[in-house]
Design brief:
There is one protein chain. With 269 residues, this protein is an alpha/beta fold. It is globular. The protein has a single domain, classed as Rossmann fold (3-Layer(aba) Sandwich). Helices cover 34% and strands 22% of the residues. The protein starts with a helix and ends with a strand.
């Protein structure tokens, strides 16, 4: 098994466990990673309550932004959500695209797919579907979607360039994406980077911000824009497991970990 395959298996196993945890447990840790903090506030995610289509049962507190808020979804659009989890972003997208649209969630964790399908069936959503698949090689036709969204998922994928190429493939000409992800402003200390629970918690697998944006450009996208960015505050009792006191003080002064929401378009009509 290659290193990339090992990483994927680690993430799949961890997110299978997360699917069975409460939102409160997930929200008070590093994207549900289990490196729990005594702090009670949410570390990564933002408040969905004000968005149409939000459903508390489908939110696991795993996001790091609100990409659907920025995704410019129109009535009748076909929307793909990468790493759809329990379905929260799909249901928010459905509120935007309406009954005439189509929303497709892709996730490679069976427990998440099962949970999302139950949530959709319970709500009678017949235009929201969930497929088990790897977002580096989506089980979808080319030129299918008007919009692609993703919330704190691409940072978990070892080969991010492959994902952006797949996003380009499944988008229609003139289509666009909006993704929220964790990026780094500088190199993480090795102890933090190599910690498995931090990888499953969105941090150690994150790319440098400049490199992340270069991947998008290299995939062929245009009109790339940062829609939102903010530093991520991780509590001392988590970082203290991996950083020295000096490193911790330096991190507070100059945060390394940021959440960004990025928009880009596929050239075309």
């Amino acid at each position: 098994m290659t290193n990339e395959e090992q990483i994927k298996e680690t993430v799949k196993q961890k997110y299978g466990e997360i699917a069975l945890q409460s939102k409160e447990t997930n929200a008070s840790s590093c994207c549900g990673s289990g490196c729990c903090s005594t702090e009670t506030y949410t570390i990564m995610s933002e408040d969905y309550n004000r968005l149409d289509g939000y459903n508390a049962d489908a939110e696991l507190g795993l996001g790091c932004g609100l990409p659907t808020q920025f995704a410019r979804i129109k009535k009748g659009d076909t929307v793909i959500d990468l790493g759809s989890g329990a379905g929260n972003d799909c249901f928010v997208a459905r509120a935007e695209t309406g009954e005439t649209g189509r929303v497709i969630g892709i996730d490679f964790t069976p427990a998440m797919i099962e949970k999302a399908r139950i949530n959709a069936t319970t709500r009678g959503f017949n235009n929201v579907e969930f497929h088990k698949g790897d977002i580096e090689n989506m089980p979808l036709a080319a030129n299918l979607a008007d919009v692609v969204v993703s919330n704190c998922v691409l940072n978990l994928v070892p080969n991010k360039q492959a994902v952006f190429k797949e996003i380009y493939r499944v988008l229609k000409a003139g289509g666009h994406f909006s993704t929220s992800d964790i990026v780094l402003m500088s190199e993480l200390p090795e102890r933090l980077k190599s910690a498995v629970e931090m990888y499953a918690g969105c941090v150690a697998g994150a790319s440098n911000k400049k490199e992340y944006l270069e991947h998008i450009e290299q995939a062929g996208f245009q009109n790339i824009a940062l829609q939102k960015e903010r530093s991520v505050t991780i509590p001392d009792d988590i970082l203290g497991n991996y950083l020295t006191k000096e490193e911790l003080e330096r991190y507070k002064t100059d945060p390394i970990i940021w959440s960004i929401t990025v928009y880009a378009e596929k050239p075309g009509a």
